[in-house]
Amino acid sequence: MTKLKQNRIIDSTFKYFGIFCTFFGLIVLAIFIFNILTEGVQRINWDFLSNLPSRRPAKAGILTAWTGTAWILGLTAIISIPLGVAAGVYLEEYGKKNRLASIIEINIANLAGVPSIIYGLLGLEIFVRTLNFGGSLLAGAFTLALLILPIIIVATREALKAVPKSLREASFGMGATKWQTIWYQTLPAASGGILTGIILALSRAVGETAPLIVIGALAYVPFVASTPMDEFTVLPMQIFNWVSRPQHGFVINAAAAIIILLLITFIMNGIAIYLRNKWQKKVNW
Amino acid sequence: MKNTGEKIIEGALAFSGLITILTTLGIIWVLVSESFSFFQVVSVSDFITDTEWTPLFTQKHYGILPLLAGTFLTTAIAILTAMPIGISIAVYLSEYAPKNFRKSIKPALEVLAAVPTVVYGFFALTVVTPFLQSIIPGLGSFNALSAGLVMGIMIIPMISSLSEDALHSLPKSLREASYGMGATRFQTAFKVAVPAASSGIIVSIILAIARAIGETMIVAIAAGQQPILTLDPRDAVETITAYIVQVSLGDVPHGSLAYKTIFAAGITLFIFTFILNNISFWIKKKYQEKYD
């Protein structure tokens, strides 16, 4: 065999290997989801969604878990969105050249790489102990808000960066102040991109378990939270708790709860991708 | 009048940015102050040389090495899984695949990173471990191998996406020169493109390592909770993160030495990820504009 022929064979072999690798992860995920569905889907019914946790797997439900997740989602959004967007606006529109902005920027890159469980340790000392929130929804939401802040800030900056200078200059030309320009022109123009980032960040918060374990979220909460100061559990915590039990009934419960959690995650990611595509098409500066 | 309003708004916005700095300072302060009182009881040299970690037993030992070994082992398995697959995907997508395919498959791969890690843990424990047990006789229901493999699948998109970006941003002329010399796509990819994009690819791998070191739920569910000093992937191990989870779930009284161990473990974890993140930051800065 000539060297040339050999090279061509290597070349086309790698092509198929590349295709195989590209689909490998997705196929594994598909097998897994199929496996989860066959195991858990039979368990999903109204009782499963509306029952309190129980020691008997067949009676246990996820009412406290999904309401806890909804609470956490709402509170985390309320805390993180204004802070994240404001910080993004500051870095992109105001602090282009100053020292503070460049320190913040390096800092954000570093924060994005801090493991989520470390945020749990921070939340435990600051929110649970020092501010005395205890293992409450509020402590959990603040902890998760800090965790996703870098994602929202980066997304806000990217979206603002994509807005053309001419838009701002036109607004300044009409006599608008810097803030008026940002509030009435730049932010609305960037809203699609910002919203995409926010949804992706919140979907990350919904799936987090480790920091909430550290701040002391409980696996067994026999009531539905009614104020932000209540103790709570969330879907990932409930899944983790069921996975660690020996009875097979709880494994089925875990699979069923995973279906609900994945549904929430995929819907949020789907909306984000849809918005991103729509926004990219509309905005052709 | 208008001007003061503008100033107040700017101040409020800057304050939001400052929160991120306060977060970092808060993390460092919490970790340092709690581990400082830990290291007043346990000497640093015991911490890094003792080969046993048993803070929750009556016979107490505080050697971080078993936890480090567990973390290192699961991370190594994950990277050995994700690196070849991730780089192959990156090379295939940037050098072989049609443009449309590349555009539609990238978001699909991101789905792998969007799945909550507790779900991956369930997957490792209930699907991958039984499968591995059918191949490797005597494999326990908790082992480093299963957790590491699943973690590898999770971080594939990190490596593939960042490496692909690096390859994609190379100037066309590089490849054209190579093709002009009669090289195949494979030769062009691995002898020209990959070396030229190596800084970006290395950054992606470093970030993936940092991610794997800090990953918690997969190892807490599937790798076990036995801090044994071992590098055998068939053994049950405990990582730094899994230990923090174990203590958090238990009834360790606040302020006790056992409570402080999670901060000593936490600061160890933080130092490793901090160093890795900064190396990647430095590489990015240094080699960024090579081709601009």
TrEMBL record, chain A:
It is found in: Cell membrane. Its main location: membrane. It is a multi-pass membrane protein. Keywords: Cell membrane, Membrane, Transmembrane, Transmembrane helix, Transport. GO terms for cellular component: plasma membrane. Signal peptide: none annotated. One of its GO terms (biological process) is phosphate ion transmembrane transport. One of its GO terms (molecular function) is phosphate transmembrane transporter activity. Residues 66-272 form the ABC transmembrane type-1 domain. InterPro entries: MetI-like (IPR000515), MetI-like_sf (IPR035906), Phosphate_PstA (IPR005672). It comes from the Bacteria. PROSITE patterns: ABC_TM1. The chain crosses the membrane at residues 16-37, 70-91, 103-124, 136-160, 181-203, 209-229, 250-275. PANTHER family: PHOSPHATE TRANSPORT SYSTEM PERMEASE PROTEIN PSTA, PHOSPHATE TRANSPORT SYSTEM PERMEASE PROTEIN PSTA-RELATED. Belongs to the binding-protein-dependent transport system permease family. CysTW subfamily. This is Phosphate transport system permease protein PstA. It comes from Fulvivirga marina. The lineage of its organism: Bacteria, Pseudomonadati, Bacteroidota, Cytophagia, Cytophagales.
From TrEMBL, chain B:
The gene is pstC. GO terms for biological process: phosphate ion transport. The lineage of its organism: Bacteria, Pseudomonadati, Bacteroidota, Cytophagia, Cytophagales. The keyword Aminoacyl-tRNA synthetase does not apply. Its main location: membrane. Belongs to the binding-protein-dependent transport system permease family. CysTW subfamily. Residues 68-280 form the ABC transmembrane type-1 domain. Part of the binding-protein-dependent transport system for phosphate; probably responsible for the translocation of the substrate across the membrane. The chain crosses the membrane at residues 12-32, 64-91, 111-132, 144-167, 188-210, 262-283. It holds the Pfam family BPD_transp_1. It comes from Fulvivirga marina. This is Phosphate transport system permease protein. One of its GO terms (molecular function) is phosphate transmembrane transporter activity. It is a multi-pass membrane protein.
